[in-house]
Write the structure tokens for this entry.
Amino acid sequence: MAVKQLDALGIKCPQPVLKIAAMLPDMKAGEILEVVADCPTFEKDVRNWCQRLKKTPLWFRDEGGGKVRCQIQF
Amino acid sequence: MNGSFDIISEEDVLHAGNEISRLTREKGFSILDRIQIRTAFSELARNMVVHAGGGKVQYTLLDDWGLQLVFEDHGPGIPDIGKAMSTGFSTTKSMGLGLPGSKKLADDFHVVSKPGEGTKITFFRKIRNDQVNNKNEGINNGQRHDFSRGERNG
Amino acid sequence: MSDKTNEKNKLETLEKRVQELEKENAGLKATLEQEAQEHEKVSMDLAIGLSEAFVVLQKISQGDFSVRASEDVENELLARLGVVINRTNDALSAAKAQTQNMIKELATPVIRVWDEVLVLPLIGTLDSQRAQHVMETLLERITKDGARIVILDITGVPYVDSLVAANIAQTMEAVKLVGAEGMLTGIRAQVAQTLVKMGVKITGVETKSNLAEGLKEAFRRLGVKAIQEKQPGD
Amino acid sequence: MAELSFLTFRGNIIVALHGEMTDSSVRNFQSHLLEEIERIHARGLIIDISALEFVDSYMARVFVETAKMAQLMDTRTVLVGMKPEIAITLIQMGLSFEGVFSAVNLDRGLEILEKERARKRGRR
């Protein structure tokens, strides 16, 4: 199963989360979405979103310069 | 929901059977479901009284699932299950339809018997009233999706 | 001297003014931050609420009507969205149930052709679930209408498997048990082959080649005379 | 079981079963019924089971047996008012009711007995 990619660089929270939400209809249960963003509250928002929607945040990685990359299992 | 009945006498068969009827009615089983469960109960509980001098029935009743009855006795056991399950075979009274007949009324039926130790029969009947039939079983496996209850994907 | 005093006074006033401005500025900053936080919270709530709505709609689109959207959320817009989704869901599932019932009823059209005579013409392939439904419907009608004779016409059934053949045999036996006479008409070659090859016995049931013959026999048994003006041939 | 009451109508015995029956009450029912047939020389027997909640294989066997015994005493038996769901259950279990008449209601049951009697007279 290919990991789907989502680029949320340059947009401010909570827009990245809205973009993730917009991916919902295309994601099957168990599929993985990789998101990269540079908004300061990104990690907190994603974790919050995952908890509410019962999705699994797999990992978060600080890539420097405010960039954060993560994978979410749907 | 679950519970159990001790079955020693014919009267116990009747009383426990009535209780099962009441429970299945409350759970919304269809008339056909209820009558078939009641009939199978009567057959299997009678078998315990007649062949093993009594035993115990445990029931488990779940929404969107069905009813499971476990009949357990410490009687002489069934020497040849294959023979006992075939229509027309009977050691004592009844048409010899108790066991094979109940199996035909079940969605799942399982007999374990050890000569000298006892017999355990598991009878399962799925609920199939209209309310459940209208649900799309393939997708949700009869479980309700509700965010407040917490559904887990993956 | 007075100049100096003047200067000093001016300076003090200015400093005061700066302090005031700084205070004001800090207040504004706090308000802004608070507003940003509130904005952030509302946006996040919206994001999550919409995501949930998405999930529910996706399930509904897959035919799963057992899902519910949350209606008791803080955000009024989301709450209304939840209500509307649930209403739509209820309407859809009711419509689906109705359609299913209609299909079921259309699949088992029990017709009262005469006082105490019921005909059930079956059309299309039978699976054992439908056969079971046929049995239940027919028996219920017999006891309700007090029917005497029941004709099960299977001209429209091109093929049966052994399970369905057994179901038909069972239906005819059950008809007898509740107290009516069963008749089976329109057995096709293939169906007859299955019945015999699979050893399905249909005991004590009259079989007639077609529905017309079945009706004639039913009328004969009831002592009803059908008048035919012109008799072709015989 | 509740007490049995037999009704006699034009030489036929009518008995209605209701409530629940233990195996021994079913056996009692059989012997009482046969004694009554002998006592009044009943010509027909109607067993109304419309109020029974269920019929299991034991009860079914007793009905079929009773009908056969009554037949030996020259009495025809009609089983009346079997619920559709009970009929389906018994048939699905694989029971056979050969030699027993069935009727949807009491009226039809009596009608069957009349017909049988007429047939017998015709044969003589």
